[in-house]
Amino acid sequence: MLDVDVIDDPAAATAALEPVRNRLLSELAAPASAATLATRLGIARQKINYHLRALEAHGLVRVAGTRKWGGLTERLLVASAASYVVSPRALGPVAADPQRTADRLSASYLIALGARVVREVSDLLRLSREADKHLATLSIDTEVRFRSPAERAAFTGELTRAVTSLVARYHDESAPGGRPHRLVIVAHPTPNETPRKEPSCQ
Questions:
Q1: Cβ–Cβ < 8 Å for 1, 79
Q2: SUPFAM superfamilies, alphabetically (predicted)?
């Protein structure tokens, strides 16, 4: 099972977002049979099988094994990943694109950058898995609490100068065999977390 899988097929995204199938994906973090899921969720086994077949058709669940139960052979299914992200690629031409956002200080531009990261990194990860190679990435995630808007502005200026200096020191446009890397730095207010309501499975 993958830690995270990116869904870029519109039909697969639709299947994963349907409430019952979404719940089944979460329940299948560990292998389970249709009968077990039917009992656990209080849904008819035939209906569970219908949804499982749809998820399996899109590669979102797979067979993890079989077991004998009452003279029958049951399939044990498991989700393909522990969690999922829907790629902007699933939205086709209307997907967010930073090149279509003029204001680089806007929240819309930041969202478009995030969408591009998902699209590009998921494509690279897929290629690296096919080649059985490691994909080198760097992520820094931290939180800073500013005392005032003035200090936030000062931090922004200092960070910009530091990044500009580092890029100038290490960037070599003509390096033989060099490979460009995309560097994206974003900052936004930390949202207030609110409990999410579980979707109905009826």
A1: yes
A2: Winged helix' DNA-binding domain
Helix ranges, the chain (H): 10-17, 19-27, 34-41, 45-57, 107-130, 149-170
Please, is 138 exposed, middle or buried when counting C-beta atoms within 10 Å of its C-beta (0-12, 13-18, 19+)?
A: exposed
Burial class from Cβ neighbours inside 10 Å (0-12, 13-18, 19+) for residue 14 reads: middle
Closest by CA position to 139, among listed 183, 98, 109: 183
Give the span between the Cα atoms of 77 and 23, in whole angstroms: 14
Domain boundaries, the chain: 2-84, 87-135+144-170
Per-residue pLDDT tens digits for 5-35: 999 999 999 999 999 999 999 999 999 999 9
For residues 60 and 8, give the distance between their C-alpha atoms in angstroms, rounded to a whole number: 12
Please report where in the chains the tokens 């973090």 appear, as a residue.
Answer: 29
The class of domain 2-84 in CATH terms is: mainly alpha
Q: Are 79 and 25 in contact (CB under 8 A)?
A: yes
Tokens 């797979």 correspond to 62
- The answer to whether 77 and 28 have CB atoms below 8 angstroms apart is yes
pLDDT of 103 reads 87
pLDDT, residue 21, reads 97
